[in-house]
Amino acid sequence: MISMPFSGATGPSEESLWSSRPACREMESKVSEGGLNVTLTIRLLMHGKEVGSIIGKKGETVKKMREESGARINISEGNCPERIVTITGPTDAIFKAFAMIAYKFEEDITNSMSNSTATSKPPVTLRLVVPASQCGSLIGKGGSKIKEIRESTGAQVQVAGDMLPNSTERAVTISGTPDAIIQCVKQICVVMLEVQSVTKGSPPKGATIPYRPKPASTPVIFAGGQAYTIQGQYAIPHPDLTKLHQLAMQQTPFTPLGQTTPAFPGLDASPPASTHELTIPNDLIGCIIGRQGTKINEIRQMSGAQIKIANATEGSSERQITITGTPANISLAQYLINASSPDPDPHGRNTFTA
Fold first, then answer.
1. Rounded to whole angstroms, how far apart are CA atoms 152 and 180?
2. pLDDT at residue 122 in the model
3. pLDDT tens, 74-114?
């Protein structure tokens, strides 16, 4: 294991968060001396507020980070509560970028405490996204490797037991001082490189399915016979959903509670109900059900269809969804079910089959 101490770091100055730090100035020479100078790609999972801090006003902060570290820093697009920050470059550039991010978060914590009554300063926390196939080596036999990393760096490291939704990756959470985090990331990179070196030329264990944060669910409202999705402060007309909704309303007259006959005299009863079945992967069923069943209940109410989800079958990776109602009810229910699932991925995991 290559060790790379980071000592003598001081607090952030107003001119630069990182360039004045001895730890950052020593980084390039110590990495080169250790012979570890290869190109890596590391992904971070951040909340929206954290991403905003990294981007800065008009993108000035992330631009400065790119220029001073020499690393490529890309931030995933999309209206998501979480975003993926991808850092790519030689190891020395990677560690510089991590130092800048860690010190920026420390500054944010310090600023937030200026108006707080809290007496203890919380640690800086970063979340890496790591292929599940590499987590075993990171943990080590009986947890020996992760224990060694904790003791040698002073950082707290936790590897999530479950994979991130719709992926084969896990979150690795690192907490501590900025210097401890930098040392910890260094050792994690060494473990990953060792794994790649050992498995070079061996058959792959399977392609890694990267984690992609799910976009925030977009509220839908109906007004004046039109459907609108709420985006920020604006209501955006949604013509496709409007057509389905209008068709459903035409074929499904409202019936007051306790009344079994049509509410409108002279109007025939709804067309005969039919049944349609969908096959959904197990790992997507939670997105459709929602927390405590809120999403599936919302779909039932909006579509007017009866929707039943079959229990999980042992050994099966899929679940059956049975939709009963008029053709319009079923079409609207199908649309809403697909809209509630994550974006389709290249592996076809979101392809629902009838």
1. 9
2. 87
3. 998 766 778 999 999 998 899 999 999 999 999 998 888 88
Q: How many C-beta neighbours within 10 Å does residue 96 have?
A: 27
pLDDT digits (tens, 9 = 90+) for 58-73: 899 999 999 999 999 9
Q: Which region, left, alpha or beta, applies to residue 284 given φ > 0 means left and ψ of -120 to 50 means alpha?
A: alpha
Smallest CA-to-CA distance from 281 within 338, 331, 238, 328 is with: 338
CA distances from 151 to 91, 128, 154, 160, 213 (A): 23, 19, 6, 19, 32
If one counts every other C-beta atom within 10 angstroms of the C-beta of residue 260, the result is 6
- Residue entry with tokens 């995991």: 349
Q: What Cα–Cα distance (Å) separates residue 182 from each residue in 19, 145, 267?
A: 15, 17, 72
pLDDT band at 182; cut points 50, 70, 90? very high
With b meaning 16 or more CB within 10 Å and e meaning fewer, what string describes 183-215?
A: bbbbbbbbbbeebeeeeeeeeeeeeebbbbbbe
Predicted local confidence at residue 187, as pLDDT: 92
Sheet holding 72-75, edge to edge: 72-75, 82-90, 39-47, 124-131, 169-176, 156-159
Residue 295 CB neighbours (<10 A):
18
Q: What would the two tokens of residue 286 be? A: 């939670």
